[in-house]
Amino acid sequence: MILQVVRYYVSYKLSYREIEEIMTERGIHADHSTINRWVIKYAPLLEHQACRRKKPVASSWRMDETYINVKGQWKYYYRAVDKYGKVIDFLLCAQRNEKAARAFFIKAIGHNGLPEKVVIDESGANALALHHINVELWQNGLMLNLIEVLQVKYLNNLVEQSHRKVKGKMHQCLGWKSDEGAKATLAGIELWSMIKNGQLDNPDGLSVWGEFYALAA
């Protein structure tokens, strides 16, 4: 039941109170504040488990950042998808600068390996972060692994369009009330996207909701 209400929240445009009402109709009492605590506790754990079952992504990435409202303040949500729209990685940061972009790329590379190509927007911070990573690769004798950087607006439409699910949830909940709530919900949204995209190993042919619940096994 806990997994079901967590999935409802991260999968659909439902508020905690709406899910509380749905579960009450089914004879199950789950207070909206309790559901909030479940999402914060379990969504990141499930997303972490999913990373272990995640299939390799393509070596051509599209990276962009978007604005996220947390406690009335705008923060920056870094995301990347591959050329097929598969989720690569994500990171919520307080600032939009080279340090934040670098932190995102280090995280993404750590989870997915080095890309051959990264398409970014006109942000100088993103370009500088990739430049510094390439310098480190060069210094470590990995000249053949240098990342090709492209700043082409139309090629980045894919990742910009994929922000819609995140933006939709933010508008639905009128912005998040805490950093931990935002990070947990974002992890859950990205997890559900990965499952819907067929990005997890699924040898048993489970349904998408079956895959979600199986992560807790």
TrEMBL record:
Keyword Cell membrane: no
Record's signal peptide: none
Keyword line: DNA recombination, DNA-binding, Transposition
Residue ranges constituting the DDE domain according to the UniProt record: 59-198
A Pfam family hit: DDE_Tnp_IS240
InterPro entries found in the cross-reference section: DDE_dom, IS_Transposase, RNaseH-like_sf, RNaseH_sf, Transpos_IS6
NCBIfam families: transpos_IS6
Function: Involved in the transposition of the insertion sequence.
Protein name: IS6 family transposase
Organism, as annotated: Photobacterium pectinilyticum
